[in-house]
Amino acid sequence: MNNVSLEPLVFLPGMMCDERLFAPQIAAFQTDRNVIVMDIASEQSMASLARKVLKNSPERFALAGLSMGGILAMEVYRQAPHRISRLALMDTNPRAEIDEVKAGRQGQLDRIANGELLSVMQEVMIPKYLHREHPNPFIEARCLHMAKSLGDMAFVNQSLALRDRPDQQDTLKHVDVPTLILMGEDDQLCPKDRHDAIKALIPHANYVVIKKAGHLPTLEQPEATTRALATWLNS
């Protein structure tokens, strides 16, 4: 039986990912605490997604998000800082989306409308997920399976939520709970300058760069990532 006396832990996955993104961490932490992975594919705005997360979460909890999940975690904190006991922002971006990326999203949405979800994932998305010098076909296959499970509408909803998201840099200035900033050293989607910006806004945060990992360190380097999260949970 789980020991639920420790604070619950809520994970927010990245775009087109589900609980499989955090499988090693769930295995490590679920014996000691209630671990919840939220579905973040059903709404088309960060504000609506955050309200849904808060509705379905315990009254107070530790919050960890990766990529889109990290962006959403910032919005959850903005809406209800008193509910968050600690915050982990992994491989993510505090800024609003730039016009160049928005334009690229429209092309992807057009392809999804033509039934090309798996092709978009294989050709556009997944090649940017992993460390360029340490590719992993098993993780690539897992990413494709997660996307297939979530389906076309999830891609559309999440693309719109990301495209129209607000800048959260002012939110981060007010974070006063134990915070972890974590990234893979070769993150092509959310490079180091994004995380440097977060650290500047949350000076007390612990900042960890995971070697031999790209955008998905939870799967690429699960032991190092889990150790960093364990230190954060016990800080």
Describe this structure in words.
The chain has 235 residues and is α/β, with parallel strands linked by helices. 46% of the residues lie in helices and 13% in strands. The protein has helices at 23-29, 46-55, 68-79, 99-113, 117-125, 137-150, 152-163, 169-172, 192-201, 217-220, 222-233; strands spanning 9-12, 35-37, 61-66, 84-90, 179-184, 206-210. It has a six-stranded parallel beta sheet with strand order 2-1-3-4-5-6, with helices on both faces. Helix 1 (23-29) crosses helix 11 (222-233). The mean pLDDT is 96.
Give me the number of helical elements: 11
Strand content: 5-15%
Round the mean pLDDT to the nearest integer and report it.
Answer: 96
Main β-sheet description: 6 strands, parallel
How many strands? Answer: 6
- Topology as a string of helices (H) and strands (E): EHEHEHEHHHHHEHEHH
Oligomer state equals: single chain
What is the helical fraction, as a range of percent? 40-55%
Strands of the largest sheet, in order across it? 2-1-3-4-5-6
Radius of gyration: 16 Å
Q: What's the N-to-C terminus distance?
A: 25 Å
Helix/strand-derived class? alpha/beta
Low-confidence stretches: none
Essential attributes:
235 residues; alpha/beta; 11 helices
Brief summary:
The chain is α/β, with parallel strands linked by helices and 235 residues long.
SSE blueprint:
Blueprint: E1 9-12, H1 23-29, E2 35-37, H2 46-55, E3 61-66, H3 68-79, E4 84-90, H4 99-113, H5 117-125, H6 137-150, H7 152-163, H8 169-172, E5 179-184, H9 192-201, E6 206-210, H10 217-220, H11 222-233
Parallel strand pairs: 1-2, 1-3, 3-4, 4-5, 5-6
Helix pairs in contact: 1-11, 2-3, 4-7, 5-6
